[in-house]
Amino acid sequence: MKLRILILSVALALFGAFGSFAADTQRKPNFVFILVDDLGWADIGANGSSFYRTPNIDSLAKDGMKFTDAYAACPVCSPTRAAILTGKYPARLHLTDWLPGRGSRPDQKLSPPKIEQGLRLEETTIAEALKPAGYVNAAMGKWHLGGEGLGPLEQGFDVNIAGDHTGTPLSYFAPFKNKQRSMPGLEDAPDGEYLTDRLTDEALKFIDANKSKPFFLYFSHYTVHIPLKAKQALSDANLKRNASGSQTNAIYAAMIDSLDESVGRVLRKLDELKLTDDTVIIFTSDNGGLAVREGPNTPATSNAPLRNGKGYLQEGGIREPLLVKWPGHIKAGSVERTPVSSIDFYPTILQLAGVPLANKVDGESLVSLLTGQGSVPPRALYWHYPHDANQAHMKDAPSGGGPGAAMREGNWKLIQHFETGYHELYDLDLDIGETNNLAATMPDKVIEMARGLREWQGSVKAQWPVQNPEYENPPVQPLAAGNILLHSRDAVVHGEKLFYEPQPFKNTLGYWVVQEDWAHWDFVVTEPGTYRVMALQGCGTNSGGAEVEFGFEDQNVMMIVEDTGHFQNFVERDLGVVELNEGEQTLTLKAKTKPGVAIMDLREVRLIKQ
Asked: Where along the chain do its domains lie?
């Protein structure tokens, strides 16, 4: 008898810990899911930012749990949002790019697959799963998962404010409309009202109206997406501050000021209504911060120490802030280092609400991590992005990576580039900035992970890009006066580690740490004759002295790399003259010696007509 009682007690305890949390409380928990558009991992104080002021956001880490290795399911927005709401990988949903997506251009080697133009109604969203359990559901802000017939109201939400098919607001300041339409629910906004403030007003109204019922508030901000627009007073105040680090954008800082104020207002409303202890707050983002040029006042931010940003499969494009607060259930100030993903929110929220999973999902419940009572099963995380991100091939403003895939397993991260077959392999425990590509020195590890990635792609029926029949890669044409500019972004790179780094402060051929790597440019000479060869090079301390050959058809010029004190400190070098014939020509760039850690960074070569 005693043994039976003991077994029953243990079973009930386990059910309470891992089964239905709703049974442990007087009411089902509320959920406030705060999703910020394009907010980078390093954009909050809790993750190290000193320029952006986020005291209210940081309080979620102080009073709850901070995840250090949380990931978006995609480096762009719509796919991540679909993953959040369904618990499924974007590749399984066949929704792998922002909507409606970008078509092919002649400068893309690969054409993207045709994707779903919205989240299919056959999919079960968090809101639809919660509704039978008595939840009232509201979508506030950005939707971007389909237009008419595929909006929030068709996907289980009872309220929709400002959500439609678009990824950017019609305006950050009222009136929130254009000649054709208004943002839903914001037709009566007084002129000059700021969108972040108005969405927060609507969120507080919803909480007030449903304080006696369990609710799911999907609070999906448009901020901090471009076009960057902020209250002028906040922008002016940030301009006066010391921006000594890599984050310096005063307008972006002002948008984050308003975001943080919004979070503070939500927290105070929950306190006022005595709902704080009954509410799970989740704060995260949909992809990395925009770290390159894409319109006025950009780059928006820096994701350092992470590499690259939105549109890239490197950490800066997919690692996200994630803070979760639920007093009495989640230990204040706790830090969780387990890698987690957007796909995990669906099963987590349902378990916390005591709602059984009615369909198979890709994510894992994080309840055991949140409560400190266990772990999630060992697993790999995957990304499949068969697209060129925005302006990936634009020569004046490259802002995204090309088609590829990635996998994280334990501390190992593999990135696969579809256009070239090039692989990157990193040990993230030792190299969070992804500076040391180990693919060449650990080929067996690359093969092992690539095999696992391919098996997963097959299991989710991932769609693949195809060869673009209209692909053109024309040679560089001369400038005025017959001069020719061979920029690093136009180079064709060969080898293991040398590649073009598009960030504005770099904009260079970099990571030239393998002597055998090389690059070439194809160009056209319309005026034959003598040309002076000028190079813009940078080199870090103690890495100078490499001999580099600039080779033309039957002649070459040599350069001894100058130590400039920093790889991004560029100096102009006069390398002498060459005789060039009319027509298509090729310049090759090869290192003859490598006395330092790296050869150099090269921003451009100019051929000046004499």
From this structure: 26-101+114-373, 384-467, 480-609
